[in-house]
Design a protein that fits this description.
400 residues; Growth Hormone, Chain: A; MFS_dom; Major facilitator superfamily MFS_1; transmembrane; membrane
Length: 400
Amino acid sequence: MSKLTQKVINLLIFSSISSSFWAIYRVVFNLFLRDLGYTNQFIGRMTSFEMLGAAILGILIGILGDRIGKKKMIIISSISFGILLLIRSTFPYKNILLILGFLNGGFMTSRRLLLDSYLMDVTDSSTRGAAFGYNFAIFMASGVLGNFVGGFMGEYLGLGLTLYITGICYAISPILLRKLPESVRDKRVTLQKVLDFSQYNKEEKYILKYYLLRTAAISFGAGLFVNFGNIIYKDLFNMSPSLIGISLSIAQFGAAAGSALSPVLGKRFGPFKYTFILNGIVIPLIICLGFIRNPFVFVVIYALRFTFTNMTNPVETSSVLSALPKNRVTSIYSLRNAANFLTRSLAAFIFGIVSVLPSGYTYLFLISSVFYTLALIFMFKLFVPLRKNGVLHQLYSNNS
């Protein structure tokens, strides 16, 4: 594979810093709300509002990224996210949390959406697989640091102060992009064009269809528990914030290591086999989570599930986006983002209802396993044209 360009390296550096602060926010905020006395039902409802914001506003932010520039939108969304986090931490009242949660969801998802589409702009087939693999590895590795540091900061500095620090640091993190040129802008991009599927040929429509179906299925299954890992550890095992941070860091570390190796593993075993087998193993692991109540075994199984699911993400994403029109990548990613967060919004709402039932977490993991199975079926169909049209061989020199 070709050497990564300086543009890609600059984007990866920004990704590592902003991802660390994002991970600190993720591990601390729900615990902050629980410390204030909010129930799982309310936290689930608030998270549902965030996911709705991510789905709806994510499309609009993606369009603006194409129209005025992805770098500019990353700066705007980062500052906005930081300001909203400071307001929500200072005035954690129900109506404020719900209303600003909707806005917060849009800004929190935009960084990833814009960053991934920007990577498509600055890479070609010789570097794209590696760039996506490294970026996802950095995203996960930063989560290791963020979860670990966030857990200890929350326990020893206080959850509120940790959120203030996180908001300020996240808001100023785009300073790392100062040397990066703006992306190519296209003022012709509109919402109508994003939703216009007539511009795709038959194969592209097929790929997009199963990409969105797979996204919706796996997002619903993951949304039942992934956003609430800190609460689950608290409810099942009464872990302290620092232990929760360590437990989540173990999972992030595995995913980071696997993602960094994904270009090599995808080439060695074949991108389809590599992705399909690991996603298949995830299903029995999720079922096990529904019944295991030994904290050490639970942490290990949770980490393996998280690792196997996420380490295949760079291979699948780079393969799918490379098979679709490059000038519509941001729009496509916006639609994928909408499918992801709309289903996660529903799943978050269901979490708040089911988690408080007797054996509620068992039901959540069993329901999740059904949707992961559906996602595996959709993935099989998704890769059919990718194996035929040469995209996999172009990216990974392996069509299997």
